[in-house]
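Shipment paperwork, digital attachment
Item: protein structure file
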Amino acid sequence: MENKILNNVVTRYPSLDVFDEKIQYLTSVKKQISEMKQSVDIGWLRVNSLPLIKELEKTIEAWINAHTAFLLNNTTQQIMNIKEFINDVSEGIKVVPKSNESAAEKEQLMSVMTHLRDVKVIKDKTLDQVDPMKQAIMLMKKHQVKMEEDFLVTLETSKSQLKEVSEKALGPVKESILPLQNQEAQNIKGRLARFGIVVQEFRIKFDNHVPKHITETSPEIIANAYDQITAFYIESCQLEEEAKELNNLEGLFDLQRSSYKQLKDCKNELVSLKEMWDLIALIDNQFDSWKQTLWDQINTENLTQLIKDMQSK
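Attachment content:
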């Protein structure tokens, strides 16, 4: 959800003080270079330093631009994201459903609920970023970075609009759909209960049929074990996707989030089982190859080392 505000925004970078110090240093170096003599006499030889000075100035200017462009692009992207978020929410809550009987009305209710959740999650975190963004803008102004618009005014306007749309979304809009929200929440609770039974049944089937106990091995037994592990993995992934969808609905309708620990346990056990059968297959294949070795071709030292290597795995 936060990606709606942080989309294409770099969040981990040095402090603004570090940027300020670096830009000031590079600017001072550029000034020193510009004040260098454009020609120097060395005995009878006159050296023209101007081309070198110009190249050094270009290099320093490129480094300065790299720092200022990062601040400009990052701040511009943040402001654009905030504007888009405000516009999306404003358009998304213009029309609210009157009932949840039809599929279209349910879909519209879900859309409005999604916007309400996003506002609830994103608003405060976005407002907390306003002051750091202002500081970045002031730093760019200090170093005479050209901006297409007055970002301080734009940012302040966006801040006011975000507060306004948030108050509308979490106030009148939320109140108007509250009866439908409560009604749909009951439907979701029923779906959650049914899915919980499905997960329990999957766990029981998993415990009863997963290839845990080995009494003998063969290529066919190993291949069958891999097929079973793959089938259970695919089914567990499908159930996880449904669990994610239900978790999303729980977040939308302020319901307690279900953890579905059984699915996580099955996934972890499948990883362990895959590693176990990989080792079984390795040993089984190795012994099969040894059975084909003639007596006069046996290298005892090599066999001993291979056994030690397998024991260490």
